[in-house]
Structure formats: structure tokens, C-alpha cells
Amino acid sequence: MVKQYEALKPYIVKGLTDCYGDSDPIISLTVRRDYRDEKFEVNTYMRAVRMKYWRGLFNNDKFTGMLTSNLQDEYRKTVEKMADYDFSMFNIMQVLAEMRSRLSEGLQDTILSLFDKLSVEHSYYPECTVNRQYFNGWKTNLAHKIGKKAIIPTHGMFSDYSWSKRTFEVSTAYAVLSDIEKVFNYLDGGETPEIDLLSVLTMADRLGTARNIDCKYFTVTLYKKGTTHIKFKNHDLIEKLNIYAARNKKWLPPNYGKKRYEDLDAEEREVIDSFQGEEEYRHVMSRRDYFLGNDTSNLLLLGAGNI
Questions:
Q1: Which residues pair with 29 in a beta bridge?
Q2: Is the pTM of this model over 0.85?
């Protein structure tokens, strides 16, 4: 098409003289980029075409769906750079390999960020000022680990419009809960049967309930005052997250998980007793591969295994 247009240009000029502007073609080609028209150049057009497909790939849940929203955003920001590369299977696999190698640290930060969100960030909050005697603030959020329940402040879950027929805003609830679920997906290792979070939230909205919504790893209750109450189902999975965070934050002794409880020195046992207790530590040692076997690179490979 471009070659044909170039051949036609001498015959579709504005005028019959050589005056200024008469030699410009009546019909022009432009490239539409970022809501504006640019002068047509082949390379500009090719970059726009490549960008269309790279953007489609990075927005495809089969490729990036296992990544939490902040990690997805990180790769979507590379679309401009990828416009210089052919959209080919070889380059797609190169991106996937780079994603697996580079995101280990990013995944670690995401897991630790979730841990902080469900524990120390909201272990004390203005809502519980009358409960200053409680170490755990909201009575549920511990400062050093995640318990059976957690409360997080969330806003925008409910419509501000009186005419709205929605029980709650499904898209907002999904944005908050899906990131939590994705981290648990990494840690869980595929042991928990799949439950589609979006379908669960959509059905709850249609049924008119915002309480005790049964999701894959937890049940949630949404309150109009701006809080989300989360009750976890799998104690071992929560303990795995606690251990992962505590080890990365250097809260646990170096011999944690390497020695039996009775072989630890007095100081090490004191730390473990304050963290989880002897019985729970023995349970961890009985399932070392589950609680201690995964690093973030393995978790990322697991998460990307469906691509």
C-alpha cells in the first residue's frame, strides 16, 4: 500500500503549477500514535504495529496474569522499548526468560510488602485508639506475624451514588484481593483447588452480600466504613508466609529449620518460642520442603508455568 501510494503521489497533487504547496498530495498518509497524527514514515508505522502486539501480550492474563499488579505495571512500562523488536516467538521467549530471571527480587519485595500490609502496617490504627492496651491494635493484626485474621483499610469498595444497585464495587474488591491471592498462589505450590475470584465476587454482588465471601484462601467481609476483614483458611500457608518474611527480615536465627528444637541453644529457642513455639517449630521441621524449600526464583517458575 505504501509503495502504491508513493507511485500515485505525482498524480494526486493539489495544483497544476509549481507554486508553493501545489505539489503536495491531496491525500496524505499519517501514523496515529498516542491520540495524535504523525507524519508517515515506515519505521514509525512499524514501531506502532509492534507496540500493538507487545501491549496485547503484556495485557494478556495467560502471560502476566500470575504477576501482582505492581509487577505487571513494571513490564507494561517496557512496551515502548519493545516496539524496536520484532514480535516473534523467539523474542517472546526471550522476554519470558528475562522476566523469570529479573523478577526474583521483585517477587520477594511483593511478598514482604503483603506481609507488612497484613501485619505491622495496620497493627495500630485510629479506629482502635480505645484499645491501646492491645499489642495487636485491631485485636487481629499482629506487628510481627500474620494471624488467623487480618483487617486492612480499603476505600472505594462501595458506590458513593445512592442510585447504584451494586452491593459493592466488584472491580475495586478484585483489585485489592487478587494481589493477595496471587502471592498465596506462589507460596501454595498448587495444593489448593482453584476458585475463580472474579466469579465469586460477581456472584456475591448479585446476591446482595458483602459478608463472609468464600474465596480460594480466605473468606472476606467488606464494610462500608472502609475496612476489609480477611479470615484465612490454611494455617500452614499463613505460617509459610510468616516464616518467609521473618527469615528475609533476619528475625530468625541462622539455624532456623536446620536443627531440631532440642539441638538449638537457649537463645535460639527463646526466639523461636516467641515467634511460634516449640510445637509449631516441630511441625515446620516435619514438613521442611513445604515451609522452607522454595526460594523466589522457584516460585516465579511455578507461577509462570502455565504460559
A1: none
A2: no
